[in-house]
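Q: How would the structure tokens look for this protein?
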Amino acid sequence: MLVFAVLMSACTVDPLKEIKEGDWNKERNVISLLVDGQIGTAVINRNGDDADLILYAKFENIEDLSKVEIKDIELSYGASTPNEVGSILNFANTDTTSMLTVVSGSGTELEWNISMKPFVSDLEGDWYIGEIGMYCDMWSSEDWGWEKTVMIADYLPAVSPELDNKISFVVEGADEKGNPFGSYENNAGNDNLYGDFSDESKEWDFNERFRRVPMGKGTWLRDFARNKVVITDDKDKEYELDLELFKETGELALKGALDYLPELVDWDDTDWVYEELAHMSNPMWYKLTKDYEPQTGNSILNLMVKDQLGESSVDEENKQLVVVIPDNGSDISAIEITALEVSYGASADVVVGSTLDFSSENTSSVTVTSEAGEESVWTIKLMVAPDLAGTWSLPSQIIYVEQEWGDKYTKDISVDFVNASKEYDNEVVIVEEGLSDGKPFGKITNNAGADGQYADYDMPDDDTVDMNYKLRHLLPTGESYWELDLNTLTMSIGVSKDEITSTAKLVPTDTGVTLQFEIPYKDNEPTWNYNNYDNYMCWSYQFDINLDK
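A: Here is the predicted structure in token form.
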């Protein structure tokens, strides 16, 4: 046993000897380096014994290039250097290089060539706003969901004045981590206006949600570690933005995070534009370009004329606009324009105060030229509000349907509800009795025609499908009270002035008028038991009754 113990002790090797002695450690890398005046992180390149490290700085911010102090240095495990924090590097020679020695744990040296080059920021300079957009996720994870990218000005036209703004970043120095900082300005542009993320007509105000790039002057900091730009405005409010660079085009995007709030969607009173803006969007962004891109829009957003009744009707797809005036004997060959609004940056061949000649078929034209030089000719149609008094025929009734995830169409309701056609031989008699609070009023009588019957908006072979509760009260059978708001061209119908049962937009046509009623949208939950008629029971939203003289 003694002999065996001696032999065993003679053969034992310390397994930690090599680690303790450190001969294994040949690493001589620089992990990071930060010097006085440096901007950004060091670029490290090593191929064997060829070791280079590139620093970037604003030379004008360094007092003496021959005495640049090391602020921080990190080496590979066990390595050391005589060039410790506080030591000096010399970049005064012509190629702005210096040397740095790194010694491994095993004592092996490696000379690193340190270059300092002028810092050129990917942010610095003057930028123009190419687009202001948002991403909408409408439950895209579901089979029935969808997603899309939207230009915010398409939903909120008041944003458009931002599109000629110039955003400037000036580099003034770097912080202790090498992050560049400097001055910032969002200049209001030639129109001296900033975009407004609101729609007054709908009482929407999303400035708190979408104003992620501040107006006016401030400061900025580029956070390399998180790839963010932090802008602080002149009121010390911080705006934290993600930065995306597009190297191929030389553009960049400043992206602001939005609260994604699908749980707040109102399913009972749904306006999807509102929901996308208010709850279903994240993120929003400003895409910036070095070259100003003229705007291409050449639309008429609004045009009004003297003595106009109500708002103008704008048909963007067909480049048409309809205005309505009272039958007051005006000279229609010279109708004065009182309001005109065209696409941002565009111009028109008329201005407020100009006159339009409607003597040819009650139409005139306006040419709108975009900022980019693209022209479009708009047809302006003049309608003279009809004298409502008299006897009218009722030739058609049109219903509008738009499913949330499917069909959108317009039909004469008698196509599917055949009993609706019983109304089409009726006579509607309107009697004007006077003015009340500036509104004409009187009696409107819906008389059954030769068949002695009124429309029945149900399906005879399916008692679950009945639209009478939605439609029958709009233009009631027999005699009713009516009054007309001349400012909005809204006709109210009911038992009396104090008991109104329906309201309709009065839209003049070439042969008479249309009573345009809004009906409850999705006031039933879809059950899919109505077959095709589920569309009407749930998704219909407008009903037009056409009257002809």
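The first strand starts at residue 30 and ends at 35.

The longest helix spans residues 2-11.

Upvote if useful.
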